[in-house]
């Protein structure tokens, strides 16, 4: 009899409380939910055609793959909270995705999200950096650091991270209000106080800025205090959306400068992709 009581006591003490959800509570009271944050960079996953995923990097230092069908998270990496987790460049290269964050160049498997390679870049940030833009070639990483009055361009070996070249380009118009973005191998800057948009080919032997009036791309006298937003176009290496004071323009980047592609003010996001077929 005592043996049966001990066995019953063991069974009772082995049980633990179990919690669950009713069907109509799913999504409302889940204990674990995943988010990615505010998207700053986005590229199509080139491991399949047509692309089944969009790879994004966010302001919250998250790298993730989202389904193009329903927006579900296929995979997600929460990166470091330091500069090593703040992605400056996101590039889709066939079955791999490449990121540059801080002094780290990383390659990821686009399907499994596995880290393939991590290279430490031999670079110390310039003092007083206002913005940073990164460009990538087959063999080099190009870091463009904007400081007041000049642009510091550092070229590094992609396979080893070693510094190859260092150049300072005088640009007296560059200041804390100038907005810049790198599109493929070109740096684009908007300076409202001058009413100009500047372009710089980062891979040129002796790079120098060229300029053209904002009016040439349909931005007439926006005002020096207007908000400027430069937005890359996923899937395109030659288009940029320039938004000034709520007016949005899709521009095409040529060797000779920028050309107006589409007027996007008041249009849906799908119009951006349609406009990228402009020759």
From TrEMBL:
One GO BP: protein folding in endoplasmic reticulum
InterPro entries: Beta-prop_EMC1_1st (IPR058545), EMC1 (IPR026895), Quinoprotein_ADH-like_sf (IPR011047)
A GO CC annotation given for this chain: EMC complex
Signal peptide limits: 1-20
Domain EMC1 first beta-propeller: 21-128
Assigned keywords, A-Z: Signal
A Pfam entry, by short name: Beta-prop_EMC1_N
Entry-linked SUPFAM superfamilies: Quinoprotein alcohol dehydrogenase-like (SSF50998)
Protein known as: EMC1 first beta-propeller domain-containing protein
